[in-house]
């Protein structure tokens, strides 16, 4: 039997204070495993800027997954247009798509007429509560990126999510499309908060 020894980092608390370290850990593991793409969640653009700055000169590809238009307020995109233009000029791919682990399901669970959770809600909540909120976000971002054609499903990626804002969870994932959710594999947890 062959064993692989890897380092995992644990943050004392979740949240945006961990973003710079999460970027450092993501880049280190990508280089170690010769992974070419890092996928991150960024709702406003701040996390995207931190990762972009940390990745300069690394030859790694950055894919930024944003909230869908209308997530916080109908008809509005939360991501900074100025940041988006600057990142795109520097070769960063920005993907905006419907949340794979909520989307239409959220409309049903929030409805006073229908109410209740769904199987999709259960999967999302399990990832949030059993592992970390950032794990749910990272998995969802990979699904969205794969569905939009921003990443292939044949090579591992580094995926990064966070709790409310910033980044605090880093993992290695083999992507899948949302329709093939159970083909997705979280292969390594690189960093995560110890408490939720």
Question: Could you please describe the fold and organization of this structure?
Answer:
By secondary structure, this protein is an alpha/beta fold. The protein has one domain (9-193): 3-Layer(aba) Sandwich (Pyruvate Kinase, Chain: A, domain 1). It contains six helices and seven strands; from the N terminus they run βαβαβαβαααβββ. It has helices spanning 19-33, 46-55, 81-89, 103-110, 119-131, 133-147; strands at 9-11, 37-41, 61-66, 93-96, 157-163, 165-174, 185-193. Helix 1 crosses helix 2 (46-55) and helix 5 packs across helix 6. The chain is globular, with a radius of gyration of 16 Å. It starts with 8 loop residues before the first strand and ends with a strand. 38% of the residues are buried.
List the helices and strands and how they pair.
Layout: E1 9-11, H1 19-33, E2 37-41, H2 46-55, E3 61-66, H3 81-89, E4 93-96, H4 103-110, H5 119-131, H6 133-147, E5 157-163, E6 165-174, E7 185-193
Parallel strand pairs: 1-7, 2-3, 2-5, 3-4
Antiparallel strand pairs: 5-6, 6-7
Helix pairs in contact: 1-2, 5-6
